[in-house]
Amino acid sequence: MVLVAVVVGVLLTRGGDSEQEAALATWQADLAEWESAQSEALVLPDGPALTDVVTGAALSPVGEAGTTESLDEVNAACTRMTAFADQVQDTPGPPALPAEAEADAEQTAAFEADLDALTTFQQAVGGPGATLRQFCGSYPLLITAHTTEDAEEARALFAQALQTQCPLAELAEVCQSLTTGASGQGDSEPVDGEQVRSVLTEQLGAAEEEIDGAASAFVATLTSP
């Protein structure tokens, strides 16, 4: 009976080791698959940058010079950036080590490096993503207001859009002045078109570059040996 018990114990131990090895192998394969999938998925899609299609002309009093900016082009550029930023934030982390598996320090380090890379990426995208969402939530409405034929309706839409949200925090004074004029509460101050364009180019360009750079760094980390 003692011999039988010893044999059974050995078989159970070997069976347990085999299950652990299988679980570890599966986890490593899942981790490699996650790295491959994310290095392909989390790449900024090609397309025009916002700075290529935004001139700042929509931030001018309704009924004056107007804007030649294309609503479709601005919306497309906005979607390209904001959808990607949302995709990054919604990306699940790498698969965790199963409870029944044991990994050595090197294997654990690989998982932690992937998790750190994703966390760093998501944090890097957070700020510029918020800037772009703010801009894209209001600027297209200003373009629409400029192309609305009914003057009263155009001014109301313009004022409402600005009262809800200025496209950029750095342009708050311009938005306030334009809101005053559009809502009939007073005359708006003359808008310095060059200054508006400069601020938009700087802020939008910086946000897009930060997101693109973070994406490139993330992919480089996942694909490095």
Question: How would you characterize the overall build of this protein?
Answer:
The chain is mostly helical and 225 residues long. It has one domain (2-223). 72% of the residues lie in helices and 0% in strands. It contains seven helices and no strands. Helix 1 (2-41) packs antiparallel against helix 7 (193-223), helix 3 (71-90) packs antiparallel against helix 4 and helix 4 (105-146) packs antiparallel against helix 7. The longest helix is centred in the middle third of the chain and has 42 residues, at 105-146. It is elongated and about 80 Å long. The chain starts with a helix and ends with a helix.
The profile of the biggest β sheet is: none
What proportion of the residues form beta strands (DSSP E)?
under 5%
> How many structural domains are formed by the residues?
1
Written as H for each helix and E for each strand, in order along the chain, the element string is: HHHHHHH
Distance between the termini: 53 Å
Mean pLDDT: 88
Question: How much helical structure, as a percent, in the residues?
Answer: over 70%
Radius of gyration, whole Å: 27 Å
Number of helical elements? 7
Structural class: mainly alpha
Q: Uncertain spans, ≥5 residues at pLDDT below 50?
A: 1-15
Shape: elongated
Query: How many strands appear in the DSSP assignment?
Result: 0
